[in-house]
Every structure is written in C-alpha cells, then in structure tokens.
Amino acid sequence: MAQKSLLANVFTWKFGTIDIPAYEIFLLRKNVVGLVNIKPITPGHVLVCPRRSVARLQDLTEIETVDLWLSVTEVHKVIEDLLKCTCSIAVQDGPDAGQTVMHAHIHIVPQFKDGSLNVTESEEREPRSEAEMSEEASRLREYFEQSTYIQ
Ligand code: AMP
Question: Which of 39, 104, 117, 147 is deepest in the core (most CB within 10 A)?
C-alpha cells in the first residue's frame, strides 16, 4: 500500500495528550510510530514511540519492546546515513528523569563533529512550522516500510 494512502487513514495520533497530525509521522507500524520533532535539539532529532499509549517503557509488552527497539535501530541508521552524523539515543523515563510527555518515547538526537548540541537554545526555540515538519517527515518516510496494519 502506498505510504500516502496509509497515512491518510490516520488523521491524528495521540502522543500523551497531544494530537500529532499525520504530516509529522514518518513511520507507522503495528506497534511503533516515528515522528519528527516540533522543537528539535539538533537538526534531525526525531522520536520513536510505542503506538499504544503507555507512560513508561516498563509498561510495554515484550513484543512491543522488541518492535520499538528494532525500529529505533532502523531509524538511527537512516538518520546517521542521511545526515552524516552519529546519534545519542536517549530516554527520559519518568517525570524525575525529565519526561514531559507521558507517552513513552525514544529520542534519536544527531550529534555533529562541530558539537552543535545546545539544549538551552532548543528550549527557547519557537515550534517549527507545519511546512518544515511535513517536508522532513516525507523525506524520511521514503526509507521505511510501513505496516499496513491499522487498528
Ligand atoms: P520528553 O521531554 O523526553 O518527554 O520529550 C518530549 C519531546 O516531545 C520533546 O522533544 C518535544 O520537543 C517533543 N514534542 C512535544 N510536542 C510535540 C509535537 N506536537 N510534535 C512533535 N514533537 C513534540
């Protein structure tokens, strides 16, 4: 099934309490969703999430855990190849660990040779535009086989 028509079936997806529009989603599988970031710490910073709404990693089933981490590995590789960088893989698992969206998610954060990571700056940054996020997600979408399983 073409990716466009697959994503068109899903108008929004709930990330915690946030409605994520389809244009932000670049990966959609039975148990996993990948989305671009509204306030990336560095260019190419994306999120890979369980599709089911759970707050913590420990709330996932074994199958969901395996599917999540297999997708993280796949997305990580694509981002590194595309952006010519290496990445930090981060999880803020729980409020005391800095989690602000109570839907489990894995951050894939590109790191560049020039050390462009600047967390403070990103906190102050304005949310990105629909056009920018949509363009990034559609470029990434081409690298991932999407499951046709839609509940
Ligand atoms: P954390 O602080 O670990 O819970 O991470 C939450 C992440 O969600 C941050 O990287 C935010 O920039 C990101 N985020 C919040 N709202 C949205 C949104 N509407 N679309 C995409 N990413 C979002």
Answer: 104
